[in-house]
Amino acid sequence: MAQAWRCKGLRWSADGPELAWDGGRRSALTWGKRVAFGVAEGGVRTCVGARGHACAVRAVVPGRSTGARCEECARLDRAHSVAADTIADDPRPYHVYLAWFGPGMTKVGITALERGPTRLLEQGAVCFSWLGAGPLMAARRTEELLRAALGVPDRIPYAAKRAVRSALPTSATERAVEVEDLHARAVALSGWPESLTREPCQPVDHARVFGLADLPAAVGDVTELAAGGAVSGRLVAAAGPDLHVETVGGRVVVLDSRLMTGWELVPVGGGDELTVPVREFREASVQDGLF
Length: 291
Known about the structure:
This protein is α+β, with helices and mostly antiparallel strands and 291 residues long. The protein has 6 helices and 15 strands. The chain is 19% helix and 28% strand. Strand 12 and strand 13 form a beta hairpin.
């Protein structure tokens, strides 16, 4: 029987995207590389645990969950989380940023200064700029100021990000316009926390890092993995947790790598095909044999 591996998800670094596996192994992802794995017959998806600790009961979790945690581990994971706003005493400095994912989709967020742009890569931000830096609570107040005064959201749904990736403006200059405009309006606001240092607008573009140039439109996305199912195809792009995989007939399908966690995955051979549930995008035409 082929050795099974447990995936820990997609990781981003200065060297690009990698799939991380239990035991410390990493698989670098490059455009054109074949992505191929299966779930063994009779396999189940188990909870990935919380904050570096294994789930005490190895609970079975739903295939469609992007968190891959049982209720108790999810509670523990959020109990000490900046993202969940459950801690206020983190002494580290934080960046406030503006992130753009497509026309009309710009958000405000915060990330620890020491993480650099990694958080933006993890979210699939096509373009971003720092807005300021300071203590955690000052960064939070600035985030709230932009939400209240300018109506800037702090979340953009992944479904919305995926829907526009293949139809973005072609130049970095065009992709930066909304970030530059929002940055100018944000720094003109009164009420900024005194402890937050404002930073100039210096847009950073990730289109090349993600492989978005000439990206074919995806016909759908994988909704879950399942026992006995397989994913096989050529990687054409990756953004945030998403892998854009070209399968049989040149069809491109998006696989959220978070759906891979919690499963024991095995190598597969054969052609470029998917035998897992796929949801067709409404704007795509019906593709016989894929769903």
